[in-house]
Design a protein that fits this description.
The protein is mostly helical. Helix content is 61%, strand content 4%. A three-stranded antiparallel β-sheet has the order 1-3-2. Helix 5 crosses helix 8, helix 10 packs across helix 13 and helix 12 crosses helix 13.
Length: 392
């Protein structure tokens, strides 16, 4: 027999304060009891909005960014609950004039915009937009609130709205001007690598992209070495799609390491936090996304790649081999630089700064291993990584 939802008995709330408190304490089975709140004065709908602001504000102050909330909602809520959560986020952000540019960029990317007239409470307008009955609408709100109540504190990588900005910033914390033309060239190369059905062509395109990113990074660290107050490392979260997120996180780790960054995986929410310079974080995100596409395509195309042990072993082996190739590519690029003797101490200093920032953010990181149960999957993953190698 299936589990039955617990339904709380008792009269529906009749005041705004009661309605807001009831929504904050509600379980999914309470939707029918609370639905009459839609037919009562506007104060009750406003109480629901205030309750949502209370929860979303707590999550943002606890380190959750718009992209994080969007990803969590996409994974844990249906389309209605996710929509309500994003609307609530848009209202929260609109209260503040001091909003970090990267925070606002994520807000826009998530589609959190205030679309409804402010002359009426949001809740009934939102329900009408999605053609929901009062019971359905309240159920979605309860689910959204339930998710927000479960969000634990996470590492703060950007200041929450309302936090005074210490100095002018252009994008992310610690970011210098990004070479948009170079990034566009890298994106174009990786897009071609992802779409190519020829391993040799994909290899050459990916290698060229990595070479461009590495050369740009080496030029940048030399310039920064002569500055009196170089910017501090920043941090970024990369969300992974299920399944095999532990194996996929290993790929993020090796790409981050090869691009002068550090990474840590949070298995509770399936994201990786990467610490490093903003330009390097862009490189990690771009290259990781491309390699995951190439790895998944090669894994699915393998005739033996239908079992879970095979696929997980494939991804672990792929990541391990990619890490070896990236390290070789980085060493080769440094060796071809005009003055490797000058560059090496600068890179060592840069590594110490990133390590110090990582330790400050994650003082109690625990290493974990990923189990491999398919020898065939390991061999196939290594062969695929050889075809996708990223440097000479």
């Amino acid at each position: 027999m299936g589990k039955r939802k617990q339904v709380r008995v008792g009269p529906p709330p009749t005041t705004a304060e009661e309605f807001g408190d009831a929504l904050l304490a509600a379980a999914p089975g309470d939707a029918d009891r609370l639905a009459p709140g839609f037919t009562l004065p506007a104060g009750l709908a406003e109480a629901a909005d205030r309750a949502g602001q209370q929860l979303i504000g707590r999550a943002c102050r606890a380190g959750w960014l718009p992209e994080d909330l969007h990803q969590a909602a996409r994974r844990r809520l249906d389309e209605f609950g996710a929509s309500y959560l994003l609307d609530t986020l848009a209202v929260y952000a609109g209260q503040f004039t001091a909003v970090h540019p990267s925070w606002r960029e994520q807000l826009d990317a998530a589609g959190a915009v205030r679309w409804w007239p402010e002359t009426e409470p949001h809740l009934p307008q939102w329900a009408a937009k999605h053609i929901l009955t009062p019971s359905e609408a309240v159920a979605a709100v309860i689910e959204a609130f339930g998710l927000l109540k479960t969000l634990p504190p996470v590492t703060v990588v950007l200041p929450a709205p309302g936090t005074p900005l210490q100095r002018p910033v252009s994008h992310g914390a610690g970011q210098k001007h990004v070479d948009d033309k170079k990034l566009s060239r890298v994106r174009a190369l990786l897009a071609k690598a992802e779409s190519s059905s020829f391993p040799e062509e994909a290899e050459a395109l990916s290698a060229k992209a990595q070479e461009l990113m590495t050369r740009h990074a080496l030029d940048r660290v030399l310039v920064e070495a002569g500055e009196a107050a170089p910017d501090l490392p920043a941090a970024r979260r990369i969300w992974l799609e299920t399944p095999y997120t532990d194996a996929k996180s290993l790929l993020v780790h090796v790409v981050a390491q090869a691009n002068r960054c550090r990474a840590v995986f949070d298995p509770r929410w399936e994201f990786v936090t990467v610490v490093g310079d903003e330009d390097d974080l862009d490189s990690v995100a771009l290259l990781t996304t491309s390699l995951l596409v190439q790895a998944t395509r090669a894994m699915i195309a393998d005739p033996a790649g239908r079992s879970r042990p095979f696929r997980k072993s494939f991804l672990v082996s792929y990541a391990t081999r990619i890490g070896e190739r990236l390290e070789q590519a980085a060493e080769a690029t440094i060796g071809r630089s005009p003055d490797p003797a000058e560059l090496l101490p600068v890179l060592a200093s840069h590594e110490l700064k990133v390590e110090a920032a990582f330790t400050t953010l994650f003082p109690e990181v625990v290493g974990r291993s990923v189990t491999v149960r398919s020898h065939e999957g390991w061999g196939a993953g290594r062969a695929a990584a050889d075809r996708a190698r990223l440097g000479e």
